Amino acid sequence: MTRGPRPKENAVRRNHHAHAQALRDVPLEGRALPKALGIASAGAKRFWRTWATSPQASAWAETDWAELEITVRLVDALFLGDLKHASEIRMRTAKWGSTVEDRARLRMTVEKPDEDELAAASEAREEVDMDEELYKLLNQPNGA
Predict the structure, then answer these.
(1) Is residue 55 part of a domain?
(2) What would the pLDDT profile of 4-32 be if each residue is shown by its tens digit?
(3) Torsion angle (degrees, nearest 10) of CA 6, 7, 8, 10
């Protein structure tokens, strides 16, 4: 037996938050890692690529990208052995919604795209990959 009054037949949830975000999980091209940052470690480069192509990045302003630049410098130092930055990195990535718990706290959901969106995104990515391949071929030394 349950406690309390029986719920009404037409019960409506009233705790919908106007500032909640629903993001689409479609592959993004993202921004390239600025060479001026001088990132040396492969882990930091992977960190940049992961965040630059994440669903959260589709809603970022310039200030968010600036925060990512600062954070990737900290991640680079972490991968080079300076472990004192680990907690700062965790605090910064939590603000972007790095884990399921962080996204729940931020009222952020990531929705799976339908097949048409996935097809369009993969076609766009294939065009970029072909351009990169052509660039590599054209810039090879004559002896190769």
Answers:
(1) no
(2) 888 778 767 676 677 777 777 777 788 99
(3) -150
